[in-house]
Structures are given as structure tokens and as C-alpha cells.
Amino acid sequence: MGEIGRPKPANLIIGVLSGVQALFVQIGETLEGYFGKIDLHSNIYPFHYTRYYNDDMGEGILRQFFSFERLIMPDEIAAIKIQTNALEEVIASEEKYVVARPVNIDPGYINESRLILASTKDFSHRIYLRDGIYAEVTLDYRRGKYESFPWTFPDYKSSEYQEFFLLVRARYVKKLKGMKGQ
After folding, report:
1. Displacement of CA 6 from its chain's centroid (Å)
2. pLDDT single digits (tens) 136-171
3. CA–CA separation, 163 vs 137, rounded Å?
4. How far apart are the first and last CA of the chain?
5. CA angle, 80 as apex, 120 and 123 as ends, to 5°?
6. Is the pLDDT score of 50 beyond 80?
7. What gap in Å lies between CA 120 and CA 132, rounded to an integer?
């Protein structure tokens, strides 16, 4: 019989999509209030991989990722997804923007071997966690790089995103080593 153990903590990442560039600073500050200091953020990239969001979010959608200094336990990701969905709803309910959905906030985490994303949508490759939240392995870390799956979103396959994820992973590994020395 296998021995039940506790997983290692993981590095929280959050991807933000918006056509309103000013929202990135506001969202970053709000997320820091929720999850602690942002230790790394990506550039703001044009999001041109799909038109899936355009009806709700308009044209000119941009993407930015945030990585957080404090590590999380993997089972926290469902509660984090619920919290980020609530933040999306608050911003939309303010009705300050000309689009129905001013922002899309996607939490996930990076550990030594993979990038996991949380979702409210069930598909064959997603595992139910709790409270209507699912998780998927989006990228697999092997031989110094990330590898994708048939279901991996096209933008997550891009070199720009993966370069950022590799930076986050390298910082995460240092965080783990620092924890062992305590």
C-alpha cells in the first residue's frame, strides 16, 4: 500500500485578458491584496490566438501573467478560481466599460513538472476538484522545456508565454530550495 503524503507547494500564476490596458495595473494591485506580493510579471502581449472572447470582450485583447512570491498548496486552486471569478463579476457589474466582460482572470500554478490551469468548464481532459471547478494539466515540463498536449490552448504553446513560464519555474525551484534550508 502506498503511503499518503502531502504535495509540495506550488507557484501561483494568474493570466489576465482584457481589452482595457489600464485594468492590468488595477488587477495586479487587487491580486496582490488577495494573494500577496507579485514577484514576476510578463510583458503585456497582444492576444491574437482566437476570436473566442471578442463578442464579450471586444477587439484588441491583451494578455499579461503574474507570478506570486508566496507559494500555495495545490488544493487551494479551486478557491482561488472562485475568488478570481468573483473579481471578474465585480468589475463587470461596475458597468464602466463598453464591453460586457472587461476582464478574464485565469489562475493556475506551476510546479517542478507541470503547469495546471483552473477552469469552470468540464471537458474530457479535466479533473473535477470541487465547487464547480476543474483542473487540467496544460503544459508538461520535460528536458528543460515545456511540452504541450492536444488540448493546450494555442497561446500557451507560444514561445513568449513559455519563456515566462520557464522564468517562473526557475524562481519556484529556488523558493523550494530556500524552504529546505529553513
Report:
1. 22
2. 999 999 999 999 999 999 999 999 999 999 999 999
3. 18
4. 31
5. 20
6. yes
7. 6
Which residues, at least 6 apart from 129, have a Cβ–Cβ distance to it below 8 Å?
A: 75, 77, 78, 118, 135
* Predicted local distance difference test score (pLDDT) of residue 181: 63
Mean pLDDT of the chain: 95
pLDDT band at 182 (very low <50, low <70, confident <90, very high): low
Q: How far is CA 116 from CA 26, 129, 162, in A?
A: 25, 12, 13
> What are the residue ranges of helices labelled H in the chain?
23-35, 54-57, 77-93, 159-180
Count of all residues that appear for the chain in the document = 182
C-alpha cell at 18: 482584457
pTM over 0.90: yes
Strand, helix or coil for residue 43: coil
- Please compute, for residue 6, the number of CA atoms within 13 A of its CA located in the half-sphere on the CB side: 5
30-67 CB burial, b ≥16 within 10 A, e <16: bbeeebeebebebeebebebeeebeeebbeebbbbbbb
Look up residue 141 and give its three cell numbers: 515540463
Closest CA to 82 of 40, 124, 27, 34: 34
